[in-house]
Amino acid sequence: MRGLLKSDNPQIELAGYHEEILRLVEKKYIQNKRVLDIGCGNSLLPIALKKSGSKVTVADISDEVLKGYSKFDIGGVVL
């Protein structure tokens, strides 16, 4: 991935990632799709995708994180 990034600080470069995905959801480019979010953490992105009609599965190393998504009928896989 380092070769794809323009800076040495990926957090700065990827800061707008979720906003861009949400923009695509709002524009209806990502709706009613099957989505796998690997390394989801405590993001609101899977919930927004689920509300847009997508079938969402999340994957993370934390079982506690995945339990939070089950309230939104989002399936999870522990890595």
Q: Can you walk me through this structure?
A:
The protein is α/β, with parallel strands linked by helices. It has helices spanning 10-13, 17-26, 45-51, 63-70; strands spanning 34-38, 55-60, 75-78. Strands 1-2-3 form a 3-stranded parallel beta sheet, with helices on one face. It is globular and about 30 Å long. The chain starts with 9 loop residues before the first helix and ends with a strand.
Short account of what is shown:
The chain has 79 residues and is an alpha/beta fold.
The fraction of residues in strands falls at: 15-25%
Distance between the ends? 20 Å
According to DSSP, the number of beta strands is 3
Strand order of the largest sheet: 1-2-3
> What integer is the average pLDDT?
79
Categorize the overall geometry. Answer: globular
Structural class: alpha/beta
Helicity level: 25-40%
Main sheet record:
3 strands, parallel
**Structural Rg:** 14 Å
Number of alpha- plus pi-helical segments? 4
- Spans of at least 5 consecutive residues whose pLDDT stays below 50 are 1-5
What letter string, H or E per element, gives the SSE order?
A: HHEHEHE
What characteristics describe this protein?
three-stranded parallel β-sheet; alpha/beta; globular; disordered N terminus; 79 residues; single chain; 3 strands
